[in-house]
Amino acid sequence: MKKKHLHKKKVSFTKKWSSKLHLWLGLSVGIIVFIVSLTGTLYVFKDEIQNSLRKEAIYVQKSSTSPLSIAVLKEKVSLELNEKYPLSAVEISLDKNRSYRFSYYEKNKKGWNYFEEVKINKLVYVDQYSGKILAVYDEKYSFFNILKYIHWSLLLNSEWGKYVVGIPTVVFIFMLITGIVLWWPNNKKARKGRFWFSWENVKTWKRKNYDLHNVLGFYASFFALLISITGIYFAYPYVKNTFNLALSGSLEQPKEKDIKSPDSLMVKNASVYDLTAQQTRKLYPTSSSFRIPLNGKNKKGKELKNIPVTIYGEEGRFSERNALIFDKYSGKLLAEKPHQKLSNAEKYANANYDIHTGSYFGLFGKILWFITGLICTSLPVTGFLVWWGKQKKQGKKI
User: Residue 153 falls within a domain, yes or no?
Assistant: First the structure.
């Protein structure tokens, strides 16, 4: 009897090369994708967990008396903690039942890793009515901050370590695209088995693992693309410039103009911070909280010519931000930059972090991002097992 020759369907050029790219890229960056996905997933509910664990420090008994002045509280914290670095900022909630949050933050740009780069990062919760220090948290060594910097730079210097994560993230984007191409069915019959698991007659773990990689990878890929693109927005200026161009027609956002102090010759008012806080409360009474720098420097360590106050519209979100600029000598309001008057590119820049973490879409967004993160964490594992299974099968044939 003559043997029947079964002609295999020709694989298209696109799928053939997508398969090769998917494999090569996956084997090259799989471990980093696993680490970055896992740390990002664990970080999603950071605010909810921390707020629950720090309840006693966050909430205070509202008093009929006015809060102590920021200058007095600043002096009290500085004396009690006796740190060699000055206090960086204070964050004040509009909720009078919440404590003031003072922070220490100093960086050493020459440090080659996270622990050498961050000199100090502490949060001090203070009862604004009594001046009592409720708690001090060393954020430099906190679980969530370590997770954040593993996710951001694998604990390397944040200036160049971001590329160690950024390059694999770009590769991961190509993997997601090639994965969608490979998943895409050729006909209607093949489509049925691609959207969900058909395990009624499946007994081998290899097939189940393959389906897990295929089906879960497909559903997660669209959200994972959004998460990945918002991630490289932080790392690469050209990505940010592309967003700026698309949203506002210009590669760069308008630079902040330096406002010269009209009161630079006068003696600094001792109550300058309280004046700024008082005016901020009046102008934005429905906001969540506001942040005042106390050491005369911004987050990058550059000297501030005035006092910029950042106002957050909603607890746990950074997308709706307003800004006020006060004279650092008299406390006079010099400029206002409300969220509504920002360009589309500036609004997006403020929202990118919230989109990346899922908080922009509320609790539902965080849950969805958490599930997507878990699937992305599993993809390098299930993908490696698919490849390993094929290698073993080929070895047996030989």
Answer: no
Supply the DSSP string of 88-142, one letter for each residue.
Answer: -EEEEESSTTB-EEEEEEEE-TT-SBHHHHEEEEEEEEE-TTT--EEEEEEGGG-
Q: What SS3 class is residue 221? A: helix
| Whether pLDDT at 75 is above 60 | yes
Number of structural domains in the chain = 2
Q: What letter would DSSP give residue 6?
A: P
Show the domain range for 315: 272-359
How confident is the model over 280-284, as a mean pLDDT? 96
pLDDT-derived band of residue 395, with 50, 70 and 90 as boundaries?
A: low
CA distance 270 to 49: 38
Are the CB atoms for 57 and 99 separated by under 8 Å?
Answer: yes
What's the CATH number where 94 sits? 3.10.450
Residue 335, pLDDT > 60, answer yes
**C-alpha distances in Å from residue 299, one per residue of 22, 78, 124, 273:** 40, 20, 18, 18
| Residue 37 covered by a domain | no
